[in-house]
Amino acid sequence: MCVLVDNMDAGMSTPSYLKAQTRCPLQEHFLPRKSSKENLDRFIPNRSAMDFDYAHYALMDGRKGKDQSAAVSSPSKEAYRKQLAETMNLNHTRILAFRNKPQAPVDLLPTNHSASLHQQPKSVKPRRYIPQTSERTLDAPDIVDDFYLNLLDWGSANVLAIALDHTVYLWDASTGSTSELVTIDEEKGPVTSINWAPDGRHVAIGLNNSEVQLWDSASNRQLRTLNGCHQSRVGSLAWNNHILTTGGMDGQIVNNDVRIRSHIVETYRGHTQEVCGLKWSGSGQQLASGGNDNVVHIWDRSVASSNSTTQWLHRLEEHTSAVKALAWCPFQANLLATGGGGGDRTIKFWNTHTGACLNSVDTGSQVCSLLWSKNERELLSSHGFTQNQLTLWKYPSMVKMAELTGHTSRVLYMAQSPDGCTVASAAGDETLRFWNVFGVPETTKKAAPKTAPEPFSHVNRIR
Amino acid sequence: MASKTAAAKDIITLHGSAAIVSEFFCYAANSILYNRAVYPEESFVKVKKYGLPMLLIEDESVKSFMSNLTSQISEWLEAGKLQRVVLVIMSKATGEVLERWNFRIETDTEVVDKGVPREKSDKEIMREIQAIMRQVASSVTYLPCLDETCVFDVLAYTDTDVAVPFTWVDSDPKLIANPQMVKLHGFDTKIHKVDTLVSYKNDEWDEEE
Question: Mind listing the UniProt keywords for this protein, alphabetically (chain B) (predicted)?
Fold first, then answer.
């Protein structure tokens, strides 16, 4: 038997064949036995977690890429380089396992592969099951199939508001009951946008005739009408505390203070065509707007004055199609994800502080809407032709984690439940579907007790 | 074998190489399962392959798992998207990864892109594979005993742009903490180069005490 120890085992003092003879767990001399359990006062490297090749690369200021050219250096260096090139690509590697596992040798249930107890610094959370079908499907007759509108929103009081042609319906997610909020007059409608205020009680409704109505959902009463902000339909709305920002087909964006009589406090000019995407950042400091003119603007509240012509903080022109999908990242400040329409089909990531484009991913289908997960580092995008699917991406690797199909026409509208677990999507196929795509925070906690016994059983064997 | 007919046999195409590698993987996996006693001896049947008596498992579910695997691996190999295949042996009770058989694959991208064939004698590839199989069989001498009931799984490391059928899911790498590693022989079809490495969990640390 000829057993060769790979050179990449840098630092391994004893070849394995010696081990076989002595049957004694010879450790590398810099690695004391119980290193992984006790944190002694020197740095104990963890082999499996160490990216040897990267470490070598970092130390040696190594070369990049798959170097096929003949190595001047020794074969070991060549092996290093090859391994290095391969490992460098690890960010571009997907690890797959076949779904249907073979039967275990003894006739009992197969093991749960999820309970892995190795001490990787990266979390080995069990991969949660993402149901491929919608959990619930509701009818949404007469929903307007227009890309530029925003007809779905889920409020913080767990009530979903959806606009079907001239009528706004409220669906209480906790009880499953539906109620009609209002039916707009024929000449004013249809409803072109809908957005819940942060309090989850008041809702703003944008109309085709450029009016914006403010309603109290608890008493089913209209509180006020905002007139004069726009000359044509109001396709997008976004709340920032007491400021309601409206985006119109005229390309204008107006900040309205809903508490005062003359509500228009500021107007942002910059878009030359309909403003279909409008989102305030989590901090409320920046506003992202996307238009039919393929441009994304970032507006900053600290850049004041409606007198100057160029007020935007950034003008992002990389998209080649209308940008309706906008989503601010909840776990990373100044990170905005934008999605382009039919001619563009990409999702782009931006640093809104510097205006730099961090990443661009071709999705193959028009991006109608984007939602970030509140629980994980994941992004959900909704698409149109041909699959009409919702795609769940891992961030930042942008690996596709799931593709949810069911809709038979482009998924124009998406909203997230306040607990962050469920996503509602509506499409021109007149259905409103609910997907348990983001998982439940409790399940990740449940996994911990499962793995907890393992380290203890390990300790028993040592002593 | 310097005859002209043998020269024709020496041409390896991408398709042929992919077939060789996926077939190798199937037999190697079966051999590992037999030698590491993941499945009882009686569930295996002897066949002749690579000039050696190779063992193949009879169990239907494992057989279908293997065949699905090999066909998918073959597909990925032809596309040049497969980076490595890992056979993981885990304890059934605790799910702890005990052994990891790592088959790293290097694809000659020129062949994938342009479809040029390569030349290598069939016999030589056979010889290389034989050597690996013999090594796997003899690995029992140094690999720690697997006392408990074990199950296995196969992971495929692919490029991110690969087309993944829904029968495959994303997985974590199932690494072993502080493993011992032994490099085995590899083989090369001139289109695909396969390296074999087995890493296993260290034996009980308290044995020294």
Answer: Cell cycle, Cell division, Mitosis, Nucleus
CB A324 within 8 A of CB A147: yes
SS3 B37: coil
Interface test with B, best of A27, A29, A98 (most B CBs within 10 A): A98
Locate B89 and state its tokens: 């042996």
pLDDT tens digits along B120-130:
888 888 888 88
Nearest chain A Cα distance for residue B183, angstroms: 5
Distance of residue B166 Cα from the nearest chain A Cα, in angstroms: 8
CB pairs under 8 A between A and B: 202
Could you say which residues from 173 to 212 on chain A have a Cβ atom under 8 Å away from some Cβ of chain B?
none
The alpha-carbon gap from B155 to the nearest alpha carbon of chain A, in Å, equals 5
Listed residue (B79, B81, B65) closest to B25, CA to CA: B65
Report in angstroms the alpha-carbon separations of A165 from A83, A90, A162, A202, A238. Answer: 60, 49, 10, 20, 20
pLDDT average, residue stretch A258-275: 92
Q: Identify all chain B residues contacting A398, using CB atoms and an 8 Å cutoff.
A: 160
Structural element, H or E, at residue B112: helix B109-114
Q: Mind giving me the DSSP string for A186-226?
A: TTT-SEEEEEE-TTSSEEEEEETTS-EEEEETTTTEEEEEE
Which of A 12-51 lie inside 8 A of B, CB atoms?
A: 12, 16-17, 19-20, 23-25, 27, 31, 33-36, 46-49
| DSSP 8-state secondary structure symbol assigned to residue B27 | H
- Alpha-carbon gap, residue B104 to A148, rounded angstroms: 49
Q: Single out the residue of B162, B164, B166 nearest to residue A405, CA to CA.
A: B166
d(CA A191, CA A204): 11
What is the spatial distance between Cα B149 and Cα B143, in angstroms, rounded to a whole number? 16
Hey, CA dihedral for A331, A158, A441, B158, is it positive or negative? negative
pLDDT interval class at A83 (50, 70, 90): low
Contact B170 A457 (CB under 8 A): no
The angle formed by the CA atoms of residues A432, A438 and A444, to the nearest 5 degrees, is: 150
Judging by DSSP bridges, how do beta strands A296-300 and A286-291 pair with one another? antiparallel
C-alpha Rg value of chain A to the nearest Å: 28
Task: Tell me the ipTM for this assembly.
Answer: 0.74
pTM here is 0.51
- Nearest to residue A114, comparing CAs of B14, B97, B68, B33? B97
